[in-house]
Design a protein that fits this description.
- With 347 residues, the protein is α/β, with parallel strands linked by helices.
- Helices cover 49% and strands 18% of the residues.
- Helix 12 (287-292) links the parallel strand 9 and strand 10 (298-301).
């Protein structure tokens, strides 16, 4: 295989779109950047007609579908920024990206979106799946019968024919949360788990990792739940209020999903700020503000942009020049922050 756009882009430290503009003398690009890209391409043995043929092929054939569930949550809005960035890059290279958003999580809506994508003759699909047999069977059908590759992101369904997964290692995230909670509570007391959806494999993996690490390292902690808030603040607040009534000596809450504001409001109204330790996820929404106020003690973050950008580009590279992903699971970094490590200027 000849030199790819990706290889040139990585060597030059620029995007693939910038490489295309430099090698084809089109679009806005600084002269010194264009010259450096061309020099690197020449040193790597790039042949000018390679890109022309690939671009011609992409204009005729490459159409990528994206199915995004939970689109209204703060995290997915950040993921969408990565999707949009990839769409702009693919468009610049002659391809097309079609995006279908689903507000909550619904197997029926996912199946509808997949069929719609098929009718629009997409060449590949990047999607946020859920743990539902009908969805898993449809993924296998798309791959085997329609020959449409599928990349999952943010949540995974391992027992399918999907090409690969891009997202956080949910089990490791849950284990990290358990370690933090164990230290916050001194390894004793009752800790409740509030999650989003039972069918979201990313969230269920966090719960699994949290439970296993607690059993292993903190046997003195009694785990309550999980209860499911469907990533809604109102529901999260109701669940927390119910738990406080039933477990007045609650020591901590591990929130695996969106719903932070609802839980924190319940904590405030119950007069338990500082008494109930809280570990939550993601550096977005009002989470930094809630941490500064003392409601959230630790936040566990991940790279939302990459989870939106990379699945689209994996499919494009596969369809563009046959470049397979180098791993089945591309895990993003896990970051941990407390009130002392909030980036300056962030709220």
């Amino acid at each position: 295989m000849g030199v790819t756009i990706r290889q040139i882009a990585e060597a030059a430290g620029v995007s693939r779109g910038t490489v295309d503009r430099a090698l084809n003398n089109r679009g806005r690009i600084r002269p010194e950047v264009a010259e450096r890209v061309r020099q690197i391409a020449e040193e790597m043995g790039y042949k000018p007609n390679q890109l022309g043929r690939a671009l011609s092929m992409s204009r005729n054939n490459i159409k990528i579908g994206v199915i995004l569930q939970g689109a209204e949550t703060p995290f997915m809005k950040e993921v969408m920024k990565g999707v949009e960035e990839a769409r702009a890059e693919v468009d610049n290279l002659g391809g097309t990206v079609l995006i279908h958003t689903i507000e909550h999580q619904s197997a029926e809506d996912v199946l509808f979106a997949m069929e719609k994508m098929r009718q629009e003759e997409v060449s590949g699909i990047a999607m946020v799946p859920l743990e539902a047999e009908e969805v898993k069977k449809e993924i296998d059908r798309f791959v085997e019968e329609y020959h449409i590759p599928v990349v999952t992101f943010t949540s995974d369904v391992e027992d399918t024919k999907r090409l690969c997964f891009v997202g956080q290692n949910g089990v490791q995230c849950g284990r990290a949360a358990a370690g933090l909670m164990g230290e916050l509570t001194g390894g004793k007391g009752k800790v409740a788990i509030i999650s989003g959806y039972r069918t979201n494999t990313s969230l269920s993996s966090r719960v699994s990792g949290f439970r296993s690490e607690m059993r292993k390292k903190y046997p003195g902690i009694e785990i309550i739940g999980p209860e499911y808030c469907f990533e809604e603040n109102v529901r999260a607040r109701e669940i927390a209020e119910k738990i406080f009534k039933e477990v007045p000596d609650l020591a901590g809450i591990y929130l695996t999903s969106h719903g932070e504001e609802g839980v924190c409001r319940a904590i405030a109204e119950a007069g338990k700020m500082g008494l109930v330790k809280m570990v939550a996820n993601d550096f977005m929404g009002r989470n930094y503000e809630l941490m500064r106020k003392g409601f959230i003690h630790f936040l566990i973050g991940q790279d939302a942009r990459i989870q939106g950008y990379e699945p689209v580009m994996i499919l494009f590279r596969l369809l563009f020049n046959g470049e397979e992903p180098d791993r089945e699971k591309l895990f993003t970094e896990i970051y941990i922050r407390n009130e002392y490590t909030i980036p300056e200027g962030r709220h």
